[in-house]
Design goal:
Layout: H1 2-29, H2 40-50, H3 52-55, H4 90-99, H5 101-106, H6 125-137, H7 141-157
The structure holds heme C.
Heme C (HEC) is lined by residues 50-51, 53-55, 74-77, 83-85, 88, 93, 96-97, 101, 114-117, 119, 131.
Length: 159
């Protein structure tokens, strides 16, 4: 009986340490997450000021957006349902907007001549979330659901 108690106690301690370790690591590596409150109206205004020039006033993107120019840079894709913005979870969209395409892809080991600038000097994190919330608010319920699942799986995978 004594050994049984001691044994399970040791296991409990080890288990506690593992939970502690993973808890800490998880907290450090946690992917960015949309805040509970976002301002969609502010996001719409910020979109028209910062994004519409390339991504279009109606989120329609640039013509021939799937074909790279002579410099290898892609035109800006639409953010409406005809594009692929909704194929990505929130964390990726946030990082792509915050640090720009080149740095975001470099972080995943890809070298890419991106036409998407980073906005970390122009917009606060909160403002970036507002813009993304505005973009998402224009999608149908079904597309929002699909994108929501991608966001959840990003959070579960930790990236
Ligand atoms: C100077 C033009 C330009 C501006 C301004 C711009 N973008 Fe982009 N954006 C691009 C291009 C070009 C791409 C295509 C991918 C690439 O080349 O990296 C892109 C891609 C993206 C993507 C990835 C979409 C996907 O489907 O993979 C997101 C998200 C994005 N932009 C958000 C924004 C937001 C939000 C703003 C405004 C705050 C903005 N962009 C402003 C040019 C621009």
């Amino acid at each position: 009986m004594m050994r049984f108690l001691f044994g399970s106690g040791a296991i409990a301690i080890v288990f506690g340490a593992v939970v502690f370790l993973f808890g800490t690591l998880g907290a450090e590596a946690a992917p960015p997450k949309q805040p509970d409150t976002v301002d969609i109206a502010a996001g719409e205004l910020l979109y028209s000021e910062n994004c519409a020039a390339c991504h279009g006033g109606n989120l329609e993107g640039q013509t021939d957006w799937q074909r790279a120019g002579e410099d290898g840079v892609l035109p800006a894709p639409p953010h409406d349902e005809t594009g692929h913005t909704w194929h990505h979870g929130d964390a990726l969209l946030f990082t792509y907007t915050r640090i720009g395409g080149k740095a975001a892809l470099a972080a995943n080991g890809m070298e890419f001549n991106s036409g998407m600038p980073g906005f970390s000097e122009v917009l606060s994190d909160e403002e970036i979330w507002d813009v993304l919330a505005y973009i998402k608010s224009t999608w149908s319920e079904r597309i929002q659901e699909v994108q929501g699942v991608r966001t959840q799986s990003e959070q579960l995978r930790g990236k």
